[in-house]
Amino acid sequence: MFSHMMVGSNDIDRSKTFYDALFGAVGGKPAITDEHGRLIYMHNGGIYIITKPINGEPAHHANGGTVGFAMSGPEQADAWHAAGVANGGTACENPPGVRTGGMGSLYLAYLRDLDGNKLCALHRMPA
Predict the structure, then answer these.
(1) Nearest Cα to 24, choosing from 82, 80, 93?
(2) Cβ 6 vs Cβ 50: under 8 Å
(3) Using CA atoms, how far apart are residues 55 and 116, in angstroms rounded to an integer?
(4) Whole-Å CA distances, 98 to 32, 107, 126
(5) How far is CA 42 from the centre of its chain?
(6) Is domain 5-54+61-124 given the CATH code 3.10.180.10 in the classification?
(7) pLDDT on residue 16
(8) CA distance 26 to 40
(9) Virtual CA dihedral for 91, 95, 97, 102, nearest 10 degrees?
């Protein structure tokens, strides 16, 4: 269904440090920077892009929006979350842990990046 996810940033260099650490914690490679200065991360078949808004206006996060990243297990989600917080991200929602609802038991870890974008590490727990 999705081809990629893109979020805006007001400071690409600061975002590169943050996201290189975040994706590095789960085995991802540092960003590729394209000819427009956008950061491109490719990992496990997904593409995530960070860019300055093309309209020249300041970047801001979407109220109610969340970008989710699939994790191989709770340990990987915890490493991802810890790397994000250690590199300037802000923990949000509840602490990382299992939550049960209509989609079964999920291990979730939430944080906000340096521009306020809400991110989630998700692992579907075995039934």
Answers:
(1) 80
(2) yes
(3) 19
(4) 33, 4, 11
(5) 12
(6) yes
(7) 98
(8) 16
(9) -90
Least Cα distance to 110 among 97, 82, 91 occurs for 91
Contacts 24+ apart (CB under 8 A), 74-77: 74/98, 74/107, 74/123, 76/25, 76/26, 76/121, 76/123, 77/107, 77/108, 77/109, 77/121, 77/122, 77/123
3-state SS class at 117? coil
What are the tokens at 118? 């809400």
Query: How do beta strands 5-8 and 46-51 pair?
Result: parallel
Q: What is the pLDDT of residues 6-34, one digit of tens each?
A: 999 999 999 999 999 999 999 999 999 99
Q: How much is the pLDDT for 18?
A: 98
Residues 26, 122 contacting (CB under 8 angstroms)? no
Burial of 80 (0-12, 13-18, 19+ CB in 10 A): buried
